[in-house]
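Dear H.,

Thanks for agreeing to be a second pair of eyes. The structure we're designing against is below in token form, covering all 429 positions.
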């Protein structure tokens, strides 16, 4: 992690951590100073212990936002003060509502070399114990309850804000911080490259709507590792744009690595989609633990999405108490408007799922492609999914799919032939 020659404290700019004083001016002035004085090697903005209430603010390049242990940056609940920004071009509108969207709580656009971090432990085992169990890091708290209620009551005028979003940026590191109660998605790198997210804890109630943990979106070279996530939606979801807007923007997500992530969700643990219109390729997820969740691994797309999903590998997964172990579907997700092209069919090829063990799994799996665009090269090996009462969960459901399977229990669908009959998966086992 980059060493910063210059260091300032939020208290130098009038910051008060009493949980009551509004610190928006302090954060904005501190970041303005970092942006315009441009110290060689960048500047570290130190947030000491305390609760710092603030409106949303933008980061700048070559800076580190450092939260001390016991420091909390807390979003104001004055939703009427929240600034609006344009919809993402690959979505064409807000994800929830037409038109613009509320800016993320902590935001960055067109940035380079930015770090959000806190106190680190001495080694990996200490970090995992300290940051996912004791949770003594600094905290970024979105106070999302008021936004969740607006969504439930149908009172939203625009799409809710993410907790942290970086756009068109590269060289981003996020580590050793707790993120909690996001109004919408928690961490959203979009149109970014060279992003590392590690040793984070992400928390939201299971009934909080659409509080995805980490959503790399039309981004490349992203590493997500050694983290604990428990939210109201997918823990990690790889995306790349929505229907005709994502097709036109044409920026895929590629070279995404997800490893040593643990968590629970009423939806999916590891997801690809459903917004994949720019394409998703070269995704590796390994050493994942998922419990008390809806779906273990979920790859999802829809007619009208277009794009592609290819070269996806998920391995070394343990899941417990999930409704469906593995789901790959071509009929998931809604559309931004009625202008999507029904002939824009997704292309799904080269999905490898191996070394997956599950207990208390209600349904083993479902792989349902599209008649006009069957899913191909779906390769399953060494998968054992135990049911709730007996040793095995109910059979797989499959349609419009081809590939191969070996050492899968319960036995997979007939469309997945043995490796000897299908050479398409020979190099994946």
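And this is the sequence the design step returned. I haven't edited it by hand at all.
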């Amino acid at each position: 992690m980059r060493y910063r020659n210059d260091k300032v404290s939020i208290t130098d700019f009038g910051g008060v951590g009493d949980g009551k004083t509004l610190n928006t001016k302090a954060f904005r002035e501190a970041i303005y100073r970092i942006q315009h004085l441009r110290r060689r090697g960048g500047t570290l903005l130190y947030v000491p212990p305390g609760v710092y209430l603030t409106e949303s603010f933008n980061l700048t390049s070559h800076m580190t936002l450092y939260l001390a242990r016991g420091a909390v940056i807390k979003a104001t609940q004055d939703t009427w003060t929240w600034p609006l920004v344009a919809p993402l071009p690959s979505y064409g509108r807000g994800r929830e509502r037409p038109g613009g969207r509320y800016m993320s709580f902590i935001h960055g656009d067109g940035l380079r070399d930015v770090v959000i971090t806190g106190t680190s432990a001495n080694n990996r085992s200490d970090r995992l114990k300290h940051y996912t169990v004791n949770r003594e890091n600094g905290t970024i708290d979105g106070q999302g309850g008021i936004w969740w209620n607006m969504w439930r009551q149908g009172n939203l005028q625009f799409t809710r804000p993410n907790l942290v979003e970086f756009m068109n940026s590269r060289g981003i590191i996020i580590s050793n911080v707790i993120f909690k109660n996001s109004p919408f998605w928690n961490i959203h790198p979009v149109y970014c490259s060279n992003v590392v997210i590690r040793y984070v804890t992400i928390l939201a109630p299971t009934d909080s709507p659409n509080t995805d943990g980490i959503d790399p979106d039309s981004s490349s070279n992203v590493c997500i590792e050694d983290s604990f996530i428990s939210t109201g939606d997918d823990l990690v979801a790889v995306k790349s744009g929505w229907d005709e807007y994502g097709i036109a923007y044409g920026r895929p997500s590629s070279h995404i690595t997800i490893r040593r992530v643990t968590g629970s969700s009423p939806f999916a643990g590891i997801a690809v989609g459903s917004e994949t219109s720019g394409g998703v390729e070269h995704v590796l997820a390994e050493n994942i633990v998922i419990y008390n969740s809806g779906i273990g691994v979920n790859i999802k797309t829809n007619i009208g999405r277009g794009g592609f999903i290819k070269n996806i590998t998920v391995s070394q997964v343990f899941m417990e108490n999930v409704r469906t172990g593995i789901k790959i579907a071509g009929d998931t997700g809604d559309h931004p408007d009625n202008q999507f092209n029904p002939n824009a069919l997704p292309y799904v090829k080269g999905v490898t799922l191996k070394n997956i063990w599950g207990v208390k799994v209600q349904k083993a799996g479902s792989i349902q492609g599209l008649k006009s665009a069957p899913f191909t090269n779906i390769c399953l090996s060494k998968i054992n999914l135990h049911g709730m009462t007996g040793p095995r969960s109910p059979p797989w459901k499959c349609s419009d799919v081809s590939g191969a399977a070996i050492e899968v229990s319960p036995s997979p669908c007939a469309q997945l032939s043995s490796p000897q009959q299908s050479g398409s998966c020979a190099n994946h086992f």
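Two observations from my side: The chain has two domains: 1-218, 234-429. The CA atoms of residues 155 and 424 lie 50 Å apart.

Warmly,
E.
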